[in-house]
Model the fold of this input.
Amino acid sequence: MGAANLSYRRRSRSKPPPSGSKTIVRNYHSLKRWLPFLIIIIAGIGAFGSSLNGKFMWDDEYVILNNLFIRDLKNLPDLFTSEYFAPSDIGHYTQSGEESYRPVVTLTHFIDYALFKLNPVGYHAGNLLFHLATAIALYLLLMNLSLPVPAALPGALLFAVHPVNSETVNMISYREDLLAGMFLCLALAGFLRKRPFMTGLFGILALFSKEMAFTMLPLAALFLILNRSVWRQYIPALSVIVLITIGYSTAIFGGFAGSSLAPSEYPGGSFGSAMATSARVVMHYLQLFVWPSHLAVDMHFLPSESFFDIRALGGILLLTGIISFTSLWRCSWQLRYLILWFFIALIPVSGVYPIKNFVAERYMYIPVMGLCGVAGIGFSWLYRHGSGVRNAALGGLVVVVFAGMFANNLRNAIWWEETRFFQEMVRANPFSYKGHTGLALASHRRGDLESAIFHLKQAVTIRPDNVIALYNLGCMMLEKKELDDAISCYRSVLILDPGFTESHYQLGLALLEKGNADEAEQSFRKALEYNPNFIPAQFMFGVVLQNRGEYQEAASVYQRILNRDGTYAKAHKNLGLIYLNNLDRPADAAEHLDRYLKLVPNDPQAELIRSVIRNIR
Done:
């Protein structure tokens, strides 16, 4: 009887389930596999979907709005030549709009412009997409660190909605952090899976997105230090990381891009003051992660003068304690790895290498991944401790995620309107000379010249060496026809920064308007000496030659402008008039005047110009 029953059970197990049951099981497993990705995407859109209402702000002006480089696909090969750093058509910025070599970022802007022209919605949608992809890449990385789903998913969720990431997601010109973070996670995931090709591909993309991806090598080394028994298995993938890091360093510091990373001054003036300041900055970052209530687009953070600053000393002692405790604490290697991730990822912006801005929210984008992973491990630990604690942990996670969504939607609105953006900057930091400069430009666009001048004077008072504020103040004074004040501002700029191309150009305009044609010519020549591509200076140099009666030379200048930018309407008009009145080339004159009218159909003299064209033809 027992044997019969045993035989019966075996036959029963071997029977295939009904086809409907197969489909249900397959769908269940498929849903279970993709559900974490869906949850991350929904949460991320809930937090940053409203960022699509944002406009172009601050650095976006020269990275996107005034960047002719990204508007022509013929410039794509220049991503890999020194032309990437050639002076741009708008003055003292580079062709790419980037101060450092970040060709992957610039490539995405090429794609943006090809698809959306200058519609900011498309650019913000790109940033949102990259942030969601980064959160998913972080989830995959945490899973590859052998963390369970109850740890990896909350960690990635927290990253997707954390308010410290709002600046990076909302500012189009900070896309480099999004791309570097995404590719860094994928490269390290490839390393953990022992796949050298995947590691190398995404590692290269990370490095050429932003320099902070340098931390890929120490993060990989930290994994091997914590897992010494398996290090031989990872030699091929680690070798790839070493090779691409060496290759990248050679290209950046020894190749054509070397000048883009020229060191700035240390905060406080010395390496010691920079380290003391760095300790305080790191503690500030930790505070923002735990309680992000003092977020600011332009942080006001005075550097420490030495280690004897009590705040710096306290920060150093606390950080030393955290790192020492992490090293000695008997915890999982994953927890130790993710705690140390935060500190290692901050090394490029820690002050070891002097950079222009030593504190910024966007610098937290990659480091905060480690802290989010730590929070995920903490949630997983609570999740395993009985149904009551589990329910409390789930409830807490839901509250934190929705709080992040709510906080981000409040903050996203800062990027919806220019005046509000800079008002928020000044509110958070009354000593923000950048905020006052931005408010001045916003006031000027509204037609409020007096308010613009007031804010620029505030900016100059706060920071007398602020060349941007001085330059803009000169432009406002020129607009008010206060020529002497304008000339004084421009000359002050050039004392501080002799290579400020636009200031040479504007000084030339002020001098020309005052009747000093010879001095104006010298200013235009100086502008072109620093930036031969600066079309406005080329045009005004042509005007000076034309007014002097050197018509052939002026015509050559205008033609060079049109060879570079065939849509520069004023060059067509002036060239047409020279051909008509001075060089006896009526057919060429008609051609250029006709092109001018197509570009400026509403010119007050349009009918007169059309009659001239008809008489010629």
Summary: Residues 1-14 have pLDDT under 50 and may be disordered. The radius of gyration is 30 Å. The longest helix spans residues 19-48.
